[in-house]
Amino acid sequence: MTQGKRRYPILILLLFGSSFLCGLSAQNKLDLHDKRVVILGDSITHRGTYVSFISYFLQKRNPDLDYNIISIGLGSETAAGTSEAEHPFPRPCIHSRLDHALEQTKPDIIFACYGMNDGIYHPLRMDRFLAYQSGIESLVAKVHASNAEVVLLTPPPFDADAKKSLAPPNATDFSYKAPFAQYNEVLRTYGKWIMLSKLSAARKIDLNTPLLEYKQERRKTDPQFFLTKDGIHPNEFGHLLMAKTILQACGFEIEGDIIEILEQATADPLFGKIDHRRQMRSKGWLEYIGYERGEVVKAESVHEIEIEAAERQKSIDKLRRL
After folding, report:
1. What is the pLDDT of residue 13?
2. CATH number at residue 18
């Protein structure tokens, strides 16, 4: 990865508030029908509930259209190649598997959600920030070279109030076990750079601001409300808000009370089928592409997985097209 010559100064980035970022909404619908959509990211995408919600709403509300979404998030991964000393193994970097992922999945559109791990839970520092920029720039360039479009997602919020172990004020080292208490300000800086940069993307979607604002609003009446149990990984409600934000930015409106939407979706047998298929297919593709996360994992084939996924999709189509 090489660092670009032009960088946006941090102080300029910090001048822009959430109202500016929220104003960068999609003008036209992003066509996902009959496209191979591949979603990259860290452990949040590895869990993948937001991907299941995206697929569910698209398929349920467009029963005559076909959607092909593969999520291959990898826990601990970064775009920057950074890793904290206390991490049990060097954090994997997307660039160690990106070329093979593009070659094997042959995507039409790539969604990429990185940043949560890239600051390695430390205060903001220029070398790490530049490494993140370089990693994202390289990712965008490689995706475009493969003749695919790219959608960039900012990291969702870090919630210090939900993290049981934070680094003390006088700490000189930090990690995912004991993060910097104001780490979300680092993530917001990373996200503002994505939103303000001249990176060529089909969409740039701010996840941090809407989730942060929703949490703050709910806590006015419910101080115990959280979108995450550990400060880092969104819970089911957080994943739904991520999916809703992404879909709306792509031109697909999800209207109604968000609490009722969650209850209805998770009670729908269609969601269960879509979620199970997504998990199976994600695991199969992740292992087929291969990765190193403390140990090397590489499957010989994804053929059987794709056969099973096709059979499960037939069952899903039968249910959604009643």
Report:
1. 44
2. 3.40.50.1110
